[in-house]
């Protein structure tokens, strides 16, 4: 059996149900995603690797399911935004073949509000 990367106490998981084989948290959230910029040495062909923070980097996007299992890790050039990484990811491209209707992933403010992806409200 697969072991979760992160374990939670049962009281922290109250209000969780299942839909279409997916573990759903509040408002039918089936998983979460985030991107991280990992600084690298400047490559010989460095076009596209400089991130918004002005250093060469890789943008690593991680996606986990509602049961805290790692679904996807994708690595893109540092110049790619979180939104672009999501749109080109295997899960982002085939989202409606992956999750049940009426469910979605959650992301941070680095992502855009898109069908199947909920992000924080911008004030």
UniProtKB/TrEMBL annotation:
Origin superkingdom: Eukaryota
Occurrences of domain DDE Tnp4 (ranges): 33-122
Protein name: DDE Tnp4 domain-containing protein
Molecular function via GO: metal ion binding
Cofactor(s) for this UniProt protein: a divalent metal cation
InterPro entries in the cross-refs: HARBI1_dom
Annotated keywords: Metal-binding
């Amino acid at each position: 059996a697969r072991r979760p990367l992160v374990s939670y106490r049962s009281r922290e998981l109250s209000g969780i149900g299942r839909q279409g084989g997916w573990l759903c948290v509040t408002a039918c959230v089936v998983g979460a995603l985030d991107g991280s910029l990992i600084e690298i040495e400047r490559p010989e062909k460095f076009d596209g690797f400089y991130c918004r923070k002005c250093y060469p980097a890789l943008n690593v996007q991680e996606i986990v399911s509602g049961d805290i299992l790692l679904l996807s890790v994708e690595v893109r050039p540092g110049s790619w935004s979180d939104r672009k990484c999501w749109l080109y990811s295997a899960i982002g491209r085939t989202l409606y073949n992956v999750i049940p209707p009426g469910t979605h992933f959650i992301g941070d403010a680095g992502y855009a509000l898109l069908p199947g992806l909920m992000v924080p409200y911008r004030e």
